[in-house]
From TrEMBL:
It comes from Mytilus coruscus (Sea mussel). The keyword Iron-sulfur does not apply. The lineage of its organism: Eukaryota, Metazoa, Spiralia, Lophotrochozoa, Mollusca. InterPro entries: Cyt_P450, Cyt_P450_CS, Cyt_P450_E_grp-I, Cyt_P450_sf. The chain crosses the membrane at residues 12-30. It is a peripheral membrane protein. Belongs to the cytochrome P450 family. This is unspecific monooxygenase. Heme binds at residue 432. One of its GO terms (molecular function) is iron ion binding.
Length: 484
C-alpha cells in the first residue's frame, strides 16, 4: 500500500519557524529574568554602556545614594562588565575576608589587555605566580623600607628638610604646595628603590617617572570608560592613545631600571629595592619582577600631606603636644605611640579625605553565592571605602573634620575605629603591601613639617569631589612661617 506525504506549503513552514523562534526568544527572556532575580537589586541602566553615564564625577557618592534604595550590596553594569558594589564593612568582610580565593581576582579591563601587562601585583590575576611575587615583594620591602636598619627615616628627614627650605624661600608669598609634595614623596620612594645616595631632583628619568604616574592616575577614574569599555577607543581615541602610551612608558621605565642596575649589581652590597628584586629573581628563577609593582606606596603619603595642609587649621594643639612630649628634639618613628593626637589627626585625614575611595576593583574567579545572591564568574567588585568612611551609623558627624573621634577618654587611640581606616589599604589577599611604609612616611613628614613651620590656608580647596584611582584636593594655596 503506497503512503502519500503532504509537504508543508510555504505558509506552514513560515508559521513553524515563527513559532519556534518565538519559543526560543521567550525561553531566553525567561532565563534572563530568572538569572536577574538571583542577582542583587540595582537601578536600571542603558544598553551597551550600562550605568557609566550615571556615576557622575564622584562615583563613590553616587553609590552611597544607590545603597539607600538598594541596600549595601547592589548590582550595576560598567559597560559590558556585570558589577556588584559593596557599601558596608560587613559586606566587604563577607566577600573579601571569608571568601578570599574567589574575590581576589582583577577584572581584565581594556587598558590591561591593550598594554599586555596584566601580570603585576596590582592588576594581575590572582594566581600561584602572583602569590609568589607578592611574597617576594613583601620580603624585599620589609628588608629595605620597614626594618629597623632601613633608611626610610633618614630619607624622609632629608627630603622633608629640602621641602621646608624650598617653602621658606616663599614664606612671604602664597603658593600651591601640591607639586612640591609630589616631588618630595616620589623622591623618597625613588631612593628606596635605587639607593639613598642618588640626587634624584636633577635626574631626568625620575622627573619623567613622576609625570607619567600623574598622567596615568588622572586618566584612570573609577567610572572612566577607557578602562572598561572598548568602544571608548573609537569615541575618544586621542585620550585612549595618550593613556596607553603613558602606561607603556612606565613599563619600559621599569625594565630600563632593572637593566641599568644589572651591570653594577652586587649581591653582597645591595643598594635598594631594585637590587633586592634582582637577588630574589635569581633565587626564584623569576625574570619578570618589576619595580613598578611597588610604586603604589607613594599615594597615601602624597595625598595625605596635601589633605593635612588643607584641613589642619589652626595648629596650636599640635604645637603643645610637640613641646610637652618631645621638648626641642625632632620626632622619630619611636614616637608614633607617644603622640596620640597626631596619630588621630592622620586617621581623621584618611577618613575625611579618603585617599582611595573605591580602592582597585576586584573580580570573581568563579561563580559564588554571596548572601542569597548568585554572582557569576568575572563579575567586577567595587568596595566603596568612601561609603564606609561617611557612614552615619559609624561616625555621628561624618562630614565634620574631628580628630578626637579616634581618641578615648584616656587620650589613647581607639583601635576599633583605627581598624576601619585600615581598609583604605585594601582588604583580604590584595591588601597593599606598602601600608606600613606609607603610614610611617606620613607620620614622619607631618611631624617634620609642623615642628618646623606654621602653615596658613589662603584659599579653600575641595577634597573628595573629583575621584580617580586616588583622591586629592583641588589646587589651593598656603603661606608658611618659621615656627622658631
Amino acid at each position: 500500500m503506497e503512503t502519500n506525504f503532504t509537504p508543508f506549503d510555504n505558509f506552514d513552514l513560515k508559521f513553524c519557524i515563527a513559532i519556534f523562534s518565538s519559543i526560543l526568544l521567550i525561553t531566553g527572556i525567561l532565563k534572563k529574568i530568572w538569572e536577574i532575580r538571583k542577582l542583587p537589586p540595582g537601578p536600571w541602566g542603558y544598553p551597551f554602556i550600562g550605568h557609566l553615564t550615571l556615576l557622575g564625577t564622584n562615583p563613590a557618592e553616587t553609590f552611597i545614594k544607590m545603597a539607600i534604595q538598594y541596600g549595601d550590596v547592589f548590582f550595576i553594569r560598567m559597560g559590558k562588565w556585570p558589577t556588584i558594589v559593596l557599601n558596608s564593612k560587613e559586606a566587604i568582610d563577607e566577600a573579601l575576608i571569608r571568601m578570599p580565593e574567589i574575590f581576589s581576582d582583577r577584572p581584565k579591563f581594556y587598558s590591561n589587555n591593550a598594554t599586555n601587562k596584566i601580570k603585576g601585583l596590582v592588576f594581575g590575576e590572582y594566581s600561584q605566580r602572583l602569590r609568589l611575587h607578592r611574597k617576594i615583594a613583601s620580603g624585599v620591602l620589609q628588608e629595605f623600607a620597614t626594618s629597623k636598619s632601613a633608611p626610610t627615616e633618614y630619607l624622609v628627614r632629608k627630603e622633608s628638610d629640602i621641602l621646608i627650605q624650598t617653602w621658606m624661600q616663599s614664606q612671604d608669598k602664597e603658593f600651591n604646595p601640591i607639586h612640591d609634595i609630589e616631588m618630595t614623596v616620589a623622591a623618597v620612594i625613588y631612593q628606596l628603590l635605587f639607593g639613598s645616595d642618588i640626587n634624584c631632583h636633577s635626574d631626568e628619568m625620575f622627573i619623567d617617572m613622576v609625570k607619567n604616574l600623574k598622567t596615568v592616575n588622572e586618566g584612570a577614574s573609577a567610572g572612566n570608560m577607557i578602562f572598561v569599555n572598548m568602544l571608548q577607543r573609537f569615541i575618544m581615541p586621542s585620550k585612549v592613545k595618550q593613556l596607553l602610551e603613558r602606561l607603556e612608558l612606565n613599563n619600559k621605565f621599569a625594565e630600563k631600571c632593572i637593566s641599568e642596575s644589572l651591570p653594577s649589581y652586587d649581591k653582597n652590597h645591595e643598594r635598594g629595592i631594585v637590587d633586592g628584586l634582582i637577588t630574589a629573581a635569581n633565587k626564584y628563577a623569576e625574570k619578570k619582577l618589576t619595580v613598578m609593582e611597588l610604586q603604589g606606596v607613594r599615594s597615601t603619603p602624597l595625598y595625605g600631606i596635601s589633605l593635612v595642609l588643607a584641613l589642619i587649621q589652626p595648629q596650636q594643639h599640635y604645637n603643645g603636644q610637640f613641646y610637652n612630649i618631645l621638648g626641642g628634639r625632632r620626632a622619630t618613628l619611636q614616637d608614633q605611640g607617644r603622640l596620640p593626637y597626631v596619630e588621630a589627626t592622620i586617621l581623621e585625614v584618611m577618613r575625611h579625605g579618603t585617599v582611595a575611595p573605591l580602592n582597585i576593583a576586584h573580580s570573581t574567579s568563579s561563580d559564588v553565592k554571596l548572601r542569597n545572591y548568585e554572582i557569576k564568574k568575572g563579575t567586577v567588585v567595587f568596595c566603596n571605602i568612601y561609603g564606609i568612611f561617611k557612614d552615619q551609623n559609624i561616625w555621628t558627624d561624618p562630614n565634620t573634620f574631628r580628630p578626637d573621634r579616634f581618641l578615648s577618654k584616656n587620650n589613647t587611640i581607639i583601635h576599633e575605629r583605627a581598624d576601619i581606616i585600615a581598609t583604605q589599604f585594601g582588604v583580604g589577599r590584595r591588601r597593599c603591601i606598602g601600608d606600613t611604609l606609607s603610614k610611617r612616611e606620613l607620620f614622619l613628614f607631618i611631624t617634620s613639617i609642623y615642628q618646623a613651620l606654621e602653615t596658613n590656608l589662603r584659599s579653600d580647596p575641595s577634597y573628595g569631589r573629583i575621584i580617580n584611582l586616588n583622591c586629592k584636593p583641588t589646587p589651593y594655596k598656603i603661606q608658611v612661617n618659621p615656627r622658631y
